[in-house]
Amino acid sequence: MPSSDLRIALSKRKPLFLIAAGFAFLAGVIPLAVAADDNTATQAAGVAADTVWVIVTGCLVMFMQAGFAMLEVGFSRMKNVGTVVAKVVTNLSVSSIAYWAVGFGFAFGAGGIFAVIGGSGFFPTFSPGSQMNLPAIAGSTAPAAAKWFFEFVFCAVSLAIVWGTMIERTKFIVYILFGVPFAAFIYPLISHQLFGGGFLMATLGSQDFAGSTVVHLTGATAGLAGLLLLGPRIGKYEKGRSNAIPGHNMPLAQLGVLILWFGWFGFNPGSTLNATNLHFADIVVVTNLAAAAGAVAALATIYFITKTMDVGMIGNGAIAALVAITAPSGYVEPWAAIVIGAVAGVIVVVGVLALDKILDDPVGALPAHGLAGIWGTLSCGLFTVPALAKFNGVGQGGFFYTGSLHQLGAQAIAVTASFLTVFVLSYSLFWIIKKTVGLRVSAREEMEGLDISEHGMWGYPESFMPVPGGVYRQPDTPTVNPHRSPEPAGSPARSEGSAA
Asked: For residues 197 and 191, what is the distance between their CA atoms, to the nearest angstrom?
């Protein structure tokens, strides 16, 4: 065909070629647009998954407050159970406000003397999806509000631990006067060092995945400082021996243990602040294995020593193991978790029996959260898997993998520095409180019970007074007045059921 005819034929078909070219362009562009939309949707789904994960696990950790309440109620005498619940609710409330105001900024905010403490993010405000400058937890895509809530409930747990050593004789006002500065500064100072990118974490490489030191040792150390200034309960030590003052309800105490065990599945796995990398599933397994090993080891240990299977000790074994696995939970394999938990179970039994001779710690908080917290933090230096240290971006492998004591040394420094800092600050604060408003109720109030002396009503009123409509109270008998002055000497004794 001549070239002129070819040009004429092509020109006649030009509209067809343009249409075909248009379809080809759309065919190429539409998949790209769809792919872009898919990528955006995938990113949004990841953010949503991380956010839901952080909030849900934070709620699990908050539910641990119920566990502490039941544990302390069970280990208390009947006359002091109401004040335990009032204390838990009040501390959760005051720490919420203090941590929002300044605690979170000190713990995680950028700026300031960052190697020592954070310096931004005070009195934060939030909007949907908003972020803050939080260098140590910037890897999580969850918004700032979710991160704040998760980190706050950790602070609340640490504060709850403080009071286990001091129940049944502490003035209620002390909980508030100590709780506010603890949540605002003392806890955030340690949290910044091992969670928030401070010197111990970022420079020294000290590992504490979910808080064996930050949460548990900090709380136990503050409790030790308060206990040393407070003294033992009336009747605990007589004639050079330690008297047992049993709690009134072991089933309630063990319900508390089970609630805490359940809450720990938010505590450790939630510390990933990330659902999409799937590491949280591994942490669930090692957490549960450690707790189981701790309970069994405590059972065997107490039976070996006393030939009894003490219910409280079994529960303390599980708690101590959970405390111990908290630091290494993101760093170790299942077999190591069993070893860590079992050792913690032995430590808590021996620790309770030894410390009870000199310190009146009604719930065993010092060995369960203090000694086990130390062991758990040090165990990272022995059992951390090098690949998991790299995955988490903190420190290096433990001795059994690397043959090096470097990581163990970093862990020992973290424990020592944290203990000394918290003890000095807490002891100083408790000393000031003791010299001003006082730490301890009067002997009479302690004997009557804090429920009635501090709150005006017993937790179990029918056990202490005739209650209207009850079988133990005659209809014409007035209610007992526990503060009425005693009868003069020689006066006739009252009949049962009469006014006191």
From this structure: 9
Residue of 246, 261, 250 lying closest to 319 (CA atoms)? 261
Would you state the pLDDT for residue 394?
97
As a whole number of angstroms, the distance between CA 212 and CA 343 comes to 15
The whole-number average pLDDT for the span 339-365 is: 97
- Can you tell me the distance from the alpha carbon of 220 to that of 2, in angstroms, rounded to the nearest whole number? 99
**Angstrom distances, CA of residue 75 to CA of 11, 46, 68, 261:** 97, 44, 11, 18
First to last CA, the chain: 126
Burial 207-225 (b: 16+ CB within 10 A, else e): bbbbbbbbbbbbbbbbbbb
Q: Which residues pair with 381 in a beta bridge?
A: none
| Percent of the chain whose predicted confidence (pLDDT) is above 70 | 86
Distances (CA, A) of 409 to 198, 332, 337: 17, 18, 20
Give the CA dihedral 71, 263, 326, 286, nearest 10 degrees.
120
What number is the average pLDDT over the span 172-190? Answer: 98
What is residue 241's DSSP assignment?
E
pLDDT of residue 475: 55
Distance CA(284)–CA(384), nearest Å, equals: 17
Residue entry with tokens 């933090």: 377
Q: To the nearest 10°, the Cα dihedral for 254, 260, 265, 271?
A: -160
496: left (phi over 0), alpha (psi -120 to 50) or beta: beta
- pLDDT confidence of residue 346: 98
Lowest mean pLDDT among 10-19, 71-80, 318-327, 409-418: 10-19
- Using CA atoms, how far residue 262 sits from 49, 176, 218, 298, in Å, is 21, 28, 22, 19
Q: Which residue has the tokens 């939080």?
A: 134
Query: How far apart are alpha carbons 395 and 2 in whole angstroms?
Result: 79
Mean pLDDT of 30-37: 47
34-43, 109-118, 149-158, 457-466: range with lowest mean pLDDT: 34-43
Pairing of strands 237-238, 241-242: antiparallel
Give the percent of the chain with pLDDT over 90: 81
pLDDT band at residue 293 under the 50/70/90 scheme? very high
Q: Whose CA is closest to 95, among 80, 73, 424, 87? A: 87
* Residue type, position 246, single letter: P
With beta carbons less than 8 A apart as the criterion, state whether 138 and 148 touch: no
CB of 8 closer than 8 Å to CB of 14: no
Q: How far is residue 266's CA from residue 312's CA, in Å, rounded to a whole number?
A: 24
For 193-204, give the DSSP string. Answer: HHTSS-HHHHTS
pTM score of the predicted model: 0.87
Query: CB–CB of 402/396 below 8 Å?
Result: yes
